[in-house]
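subagent[fold] <- orchestrator: predict structure for attached chain, return tokens only, no commentary.
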Amino acid sequence: MLHLTHKASVFLLWPVNGKEAQMPHRKLKEFDPVSFLATSGLGRRILHIKAKGTLFSQGGIADSVYYVQKGRAKLTVVSKAGKEATITLITAGDFVGEESATAIAGLHMSTATAIVACSVLKIERHEMMRVIHDEHAFSDIFVAFLLERSMRTQADLVDQLFNSSERRLARILLLMADFGKPGEPETMIPKITQETLADMIGTTRSRVSFFMNRFRKMGFIEYNGRIHVHKSLLNVVLHDQRPGANSISAALLDRERDKTKFAKQTSA
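subagent[fold] -> orchestrator:
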């Protein structure tokens, strides 16, 4: 026979007549990574960032990881000389500030700025480390993201080294429209300046303007304040289908610019 004792709102089962009784196990609620990333809780909170608002700044303490629930942001770096460059775009479903989850906490190496209004989940470092170690469903998602980010970085490097600035621009526009991802692409991409696009592909604003006008004339995009990307733009990246004479001229301009840059570096 078992006696039920109530103490501090906890029910304890005591052994009777020398027989040991086992306390029944309460079934714990299964961890849901989707719910975790969608709600506030211990060590995490949802922030609403206005357009041009900052998630974190270069040189700031890396004490939190951010998960973008809605909106788009960009990562920029500033050199010692004060030159700013955009290194990547962040979309809904991306983590950013993942350097905060390293073994030794350091500083942010870039600045994350909202392009449009964003909703982000700010996860404090200690909570991020706990959930990575304790919840395999979450760590699987996070590791998959890191691998995808690594592959994207390698593709960006190859793109920068071997492709013309025109093809780099086409690729960036397609990535912003989420072509190649499951589901329907968002063909209308957020407002972005030609200066930002120029920074991302490593060319000048005038060159971006030249290529954007060409894409519009060919029906690859519609451009009137915001950019509407058509699937046909894939032809520029996959098959290099562009007007022959103009393409040759553009390629020659790229080579001449590279030669000039190399000459300056050699003479320095």
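orchestrator: received. Logging for downstream: The chain has a mean pLDDT of 79. The chain has two domains: 30-152, 163-268.
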